[in-house]
């Protein structure tokens, strides 16, 4: 089992339980005890779980994300399909804000080499955009977060000084009833500013994110102009977005 799937299995196994032992996770994933302990150490370092003697339990913090490296190769084919459609919604010579996150990184890779002006909100996205001649790429000045290389605090100030044609954003959760949410206050504030600074807003999110909610709300579904999601999105949820005037693209 690849690491990203193993990490998801571990997080799912500890959800709602007091403790899960290493031996249980070995049986669940087929990985060795050494590998499981290494996984637990990595997930614990990012706040996704808490270590116990002989195992792990659910973290106290609600909505702790998986490490960037664990999310990077998860559902890669779907992310590539979503990214191609989202990048196609950005016209040549337009200005675009590219959010942090693994799916937005794939969008940045699709935009590389094209004549666009881009404000990248993570060093991952900036490096992808600047990997080929064509795009004019800028980044906020200021501190860089570990793991996801996002520039959340500096990004908030930078976004307030720009007016973009389009923003490509991600979301931890995108419920048609509870709104678009993030796991941190700072990230939610940044996304709120990005939407305000852009004429069009494209949300790129897999179907699994359309029926869950995180802690910090940054927008309502009506604040979007486009939703790019996967074909397995429930019909009733897709209809709700469309009823609010959002153009939905199914990949």
How would you characterize the overall build of this protein?
- There is one protein chain.
- The protein contains ten helices and 13 strands.
- The mean pLDDT is 90.
- The strands form three sheets. A seven-stranded parallel beta sheet has the order 6-5-4-7-10-12-13, sandwiched between helices. A three-stranded antiparallel beta sheet has the order 1-3-2.
- The chain is 39% helix and 21% strand.
- The protein folds into two domains: 3-62, Winged helix-like DNA-binding domain superfamily/Winged helix DNA-binding domain (Arc Repressor Mutant, subunit A), CATH 1.10.10.10; 75-250, 3-Layer(aba) Sandwich (Rossmann fold), CATH 3.40.50.
- Helix 5 (76-88) packs across helix 6 (102-111), helix 6 (102-111) packs parallel to helix 7 and helix 8 runs parallel beside helix 9 (185-196).
- It is globular and about 55 Å long.
- It has helices at 3-14, 22-29, 33-45, 68-72, 76-88, 102-111, 123-129, 152-160, 185-196, 235-243, and strands at residues 20-21, 49-52, 55-58, 95-98, 117-120, 136-138, 164-169, 173-175, 179-182, 198-204, 216-219, 226-229, 247-250.
- Helix 10 (235-243) links the parallel strand 12 and strand 13 (247-250).
- It is an alpha/beta fold and 251 residues long.
